[in-house]
């Protein structure tokens, strides 16, 4: 499956199976791994209250292809080139762009193959039952380790950050991530490695 780098704008086209662009997307600047996702307070001894979901009202069917009658069975695939140590930053930036464009937080799942997102690490400190219960509420972005993708609920948008981890797990979980993406799968990482992972995943 050929992968073509995307422009900075994360967009969703309702007219074709995949949107492509000739201009590669620049790798975003570094962001501290300890920094929580924008809109969330810094993790402390007690779990912070969940922020109010960003409204997604007023969006046209073109911005939300899953609301169209001609919904695609295969999600659109977008690749954001990034080194291993910058894949999580790229995923954060893609998330911000999607939320700013009107995507509801509860429509997005973020998976990481290496170090967990700081939010996931913090919430897991309260126990797995409470952590996974937040996924079931479906009112905010949910962050999870790619190795636990089988427990993840399908959402319209899945962001897959190849930020480390072993090749076998990444190859197995990338196709699973695609299966859980209703309309859009955004993959952040090294294009060559991702191409190899897609090929390896098909053989698993």
Offer a quick outline of the entry.
28% of the residues lie in helices and 15% in strands. By secondary structure, the protein is an alpha/beta fold.
Name the descriptors.
alpha/beta, 5 strands, globular, 5 helices, 204 residues, 15% strand
Topology, please?
Layout: E1 76-81, H1 87-100, E2 108-112, H2 118-124, H3 128-137, E3 142-145, E4 155-161, H4 167-180, E5 181-189, H5 191-203
Parallel strand pairs: 1-5, 2-3, 2-4, 4-5
Helix pairs in contact: 4-5
Detailed description of the structure:
The structure is a single chain. The protein is globular, with a radius of gyration of 16 Å. Residues 13-36 and 38-72 have low confidence and may be disordered. The longest helix has 14 residues, at 87-100. It has a five-stranded parallel sheet with strand order 1-5-4-2-3, with helices on both faces. It has 204 residues and is of the alpha/beta class. It has five helices and five strands. Helix 4 crosses helix 5 (191-203).
pLDDT averaged residue by residue: 74
Given as residue ranges, the uncertain stretches (5+ residues, pLDDT < 50) are 13-36, 38-72
Task: List the strand order in the largest sheet.
Answer: 1-5-4-2-3
Number of helices: 5
Main sheet characteristics: 5 strands, parallel
Order of helices and strands: EHEHHEEHEH
Shape designation: globular
What is the end-to-end distance? 16 Å
Quaternary organisation: single chain
- Beta content comes to 15-25%
Secondary-structure class: alpha/beta
């Amino acid at each position: 499956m050929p992968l073509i780098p995307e422009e900075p704008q994360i967009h969703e086209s309702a007219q074709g199976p995949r949107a492509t662009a000739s201009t590669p997307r620049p790798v975003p600047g570094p962001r501290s791994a300890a920094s929580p996702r924008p809109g969330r307070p810094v993790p402390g001894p007690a779990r912070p209250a969940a922020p109010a979901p960003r409204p997604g009202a007023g969006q046209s069917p073109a911005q939300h292809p899953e609301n169209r009658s001609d919904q695609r069975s295969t999600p659109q695939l977008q690749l954001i080139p990034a080194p291993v140590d910058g894949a999580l930053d790229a995923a954060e930036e893609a998330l911000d762009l999607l939320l700013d464009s009107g995507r509801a937080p509860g429509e997005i799942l973020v998976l990481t193959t290496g170090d967990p997102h700081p939010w996931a690490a913090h919430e897991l400190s309260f126990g797995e039952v409470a952590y996974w219960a937040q996924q079931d509420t479906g009112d905010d972005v949910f962050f999870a380790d790619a190795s636990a993708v089988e427990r993840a609920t399908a959402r319209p948008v899945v962001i897959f950050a190849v930020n480390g981890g072993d090749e076998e797990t990444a190859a197995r979980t990338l196709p699973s991530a695609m299966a859980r993406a209703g309309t859009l799968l955004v993959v952040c990482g090294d294009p060559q490695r991702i191409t190899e992972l897609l090929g390896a995943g098909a053989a698993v």
